Predict the 3D structure of the following.
Amino acid sequence: MLGGRPAGVSTLQFAMDDADGVDTRQRLVVVGNGMAGARVVEEVLERGGGEQFAITVFGEEPHGNYNRIMLSHVLAGEEHEDDIVLNSHDWYADHGVTLRAGVRVMRIDTHAKVVHAADGTTTPYDQLVLATGSRSFIPPMTGLYSGDDELLPGVFGFRTIDDTRAMLAAAAEHERVVVIGGGLLGLEAARALQGHGLHVEVVHAGTHLMNQQLDPDGGAILKQSVESLGIVVHLATRTTEVVGPDRVRGVVLADGRVLDADLLVIAAGIRPVTEVALLSGLEVERGVVVDDQLRTDDPDVYAVGECAQHRGELYGLVAPVWEQARVLADLLTGTDPDAEYHGSRTATKLKVAGVDVATMGVNRPERDTDEFLVISEPRRGVHLSVVVRDDKLVGATLLGDTRKVAFLTQAFDRGTPLPAERIRLLVDLSDGAEEVGVAELPGDSQVCNCNGVTKQGICDAVAGGCGSVGAVMDATRAGKGCGSCKALVKQVVEWAADGDVTEDPSASWYVPGVPLAKPALIAAIREQQLRSVSAVFAALGPGGAEDAKSKMGLTSLLRTVWGAEYEQENDAKFINDRVHANIQRDGTFSVVPQMKGGVTTPAQLRRIADVAEKYEVPMVKVTGGQRIDLLGVRKEDLPGMWADLGMPSGYAYGKSMRTVKTCVGTDFCRFGLGDSTQLGIDLETRFQGIESPAKIKMAVVGCPRNCAEAYVKDVGVVAVGNGRWEVYVGGAAGASVRKGDLLATVDSPAAVMQLTGRFLQYYRENANWLERTYDFVPRVGLAQVKAVVLEGSPEVLADLDAGIQRSIDAYTDPWGQDGAQPATPGQFRTALPLVDLPKVPVR
Amino acid sequence: MSLAHSDAPEAPTTAPARAGTPATGVSDGPAAPGPGVPHVVGRVDDVPPGEGRAFVAGGVQVAVFRLRDGSLHATQAACPHAGGPLADGQTDADVLVCPLHLFAYRWSDGVSTSGAAPVRRYPVHEDAGRLVVTV
Ligand SMILES: Cc1cc2nc3c(=O)[nH]c(=O)nc-3n(C[C@H](O)[C@H](O)[C@H](O)COP(=O)(O)OP(=O)(O)OC[C@H]3O[C@@H](n4cnc5c(N)ncnc54)[C@H](O)[C@@H]3O)c2cc1C
Ligand code: SF4
Ligand code: FES
């Protein structure tokens, strides 16, 4: 259970009146332990209400109170459910609050002033707060229910942690999901499930996505962004029928089309939960009707949160909940007996399917005299608009770019004067004229809507000693909701600390499990002579604890530091490095023999062909690195294949030097200016298998025509004539594309080899774990790289040369080595599938 | 502007008042181990320290791990996320990390610290050098 405590530990604890052992406090009962109910309790306690009230909270969910808006992140696998707990069961116990978790309230007897719960108990109250929230609205469809009340297996709402867990479990087993509803919730669910590898289709009854918040143009742009993620969107149609019968098999749309689906997620809006209020005879329209003091028509019964209807409005976001909770706590505790709630402004910041959205007020002009400014950049997924009336901002919609949200919110809230050039409302013109930044934000303006944190709250945290953005976020919870305000939180912290912000210490650690930056870690490893990963954890890990996710990075670092003197521990290696092959999505492996410079022979090709046939290799593929990949190999076949191939490993699996591509250079090409093929082979021979923070790909070309793409490699070498070679570093042509920076032009292949070695060693010693050269070089700066590897002192250069040489000397071909004699028992035993394993009889 | 209260523009005329919770019952974690049957799957030495190996126990595929502190753990062999070979994963005293997408599962209760479904655990112990898994 979420935020739970061990069984058998009592959660009951009453603060008794010391004199006679009788609790003289008033009894405050809260029905609903969601975001509103729990917040009311927190606010009451904050005002010293613990002495005035004996508080009891009923929650239908068995859990402590958790951050509901983070469920999308849990569904996406970005957060662990333990991390979204706001108040654990222990919190209630520690604060003397009785939590009746897992107990549903049936009705309230407002005359006798008692609460009747589903477990048959009755609980008297003096003041009562209804905070029953909403539930998913389930539109009528044929075939939706399997029994009387049971939704067909595979159909889910999206409201609770239990919904989320059930979807996660189902997502692991199924492939196709249809999401009904193209609003905030539906799109969040769609993106999260897509992240689990499911094929996702969204069916939306409106004519554009998020039609509650966006105008049709904005919706169309959002649709593009969503579709570019690979999510299929069907607009202006509804689902009329669910295909069963045993579980969801598909849905039928109103236009007759049938979509296959194993899962159906319904996010077609929400409805306030009003049963308790109805059965108790309270006034209910769409929600429980309350006045400006959040009172229902019974003077001792209040309602807050999504179940409450105030001045005809229902709210579906959390910011109004915080405002209501504050007002109610002021009233209940008497802190401000005249406190009133006047409704919430509808400025919202959200992150939907990875797209930032901020909206406030109206989203299109309503009068002839309204000014309307739109900037639409469909290709960038950006759509910005403002509506100005009588020189006041009355509405704004920001999609895909919310940099101006702080200023616009302020203008919307306070009616501050607007720039005469209206375009400045939406973009910062480059003349740098008076920019309204965080400095001008009033202290009480809300920075984090999700957790109700104001600019002043952040400033107070900084003044109170929080020195980093992370510390402020931990202390105030700012930025820990939907996350869309993180950039603004950072700006405010930086402003409040006057630039004196420390980096979060963990950001500089080489691996998460050892609290040291790389230089300090290397120094400690050398000083304490730590030669194995377990020795590093024992000496440097917090409390000597090991950390699974740090092991691979440490293995690489120890090899870099110690070369052959590193002490092998197979469990500290990632599976690829344990079996010297690249694991594939089905648990099989790929085998790539070394083919230096991409040059091979008929004999090699024949052998590869024979091996591929002998081991029934399902796919033989020529790689981008100029080698041949044998894919789909069973783990247990690896040693046999290596022996039959008789070729060394191509290191296509490790965080190490992988390949050197070459062109045919002077040998055959009529343009060749240098012998690129031979230099490539020599580079690969010298640096083969060198471990590094991330993979290293190189190329050598015989002229600037660049046939082997040397400009976009970690190290790229280009012959420019007269025996001269250009050496480029930090290039990339993967998920990001970057042309390498020219490090130097040298005049012999030997000089290329030496410079490459120095650059690699500098990178190996200074880059973070998994930091490719294309991030590393811009981070430290080309000038710095040059200062060390070109202009360093003789000692520095000698150290670099010795460091790389140590690793070069430590090279052994892993295939030759482990193929002959396994490093550990069962090194090449299959892990999947297991059907054919010998079974030892039970004794 | 009314907020996300109803994302469907026209409200359907008949709205059944039903909770939007799924029919599938989910427990808070793997069920408490019932009275299972013990199976000798191999020898403790078959599993190198810190690593895992896959076995079949009574027709069930299991992954058995021997941590560096000597403790033994057993889980289902295939990762709940996308079927990855858990025996090829990496371990520490708290969690098992699947090799395919690096989802982590806690030994204590099988729950994923990365948001996947929980992994099923099986009791495992040593008996005179033999590995015994109860399924
Ligand atoms: C997946 C998701 C993402 C969201 N994202 C955002 C976002 O990014 N930004 C934003 O502002 N808002 C977001 N929201 C909305 C936000 O979560 C709600 O506005 C907020 O939770 C409302 O609080 P509440 O206390 O009124 O209702 P709830 O949090 O739903 O709490 C009501 C509680 O009362 C309990 N209850 C009901 N009836 C009874 C009874 N008879 N007896 C006992 N207990 C009862 C329920 O079990 C529930 O635990 C999101 C919501 C979801 C589901
Ligand atoms: S890069 Fe230049 S030398 Fe090499 S193959 Fe292309 S044209 Fe010829
Ligand atoms: S299969 Fe295990 S993490 Fe994806």
Summary: The pocket of FE2/S2 (inorganic) cluster (ligand 3) is lined by residues B 79, 81-84, 98, 100-101, 103 (CB under 6 Å). Chain A touches chain B through 112 residues (CB under 8 Å). Residues 27 and 125 of chain A are 5 Å apart (CA to CA).
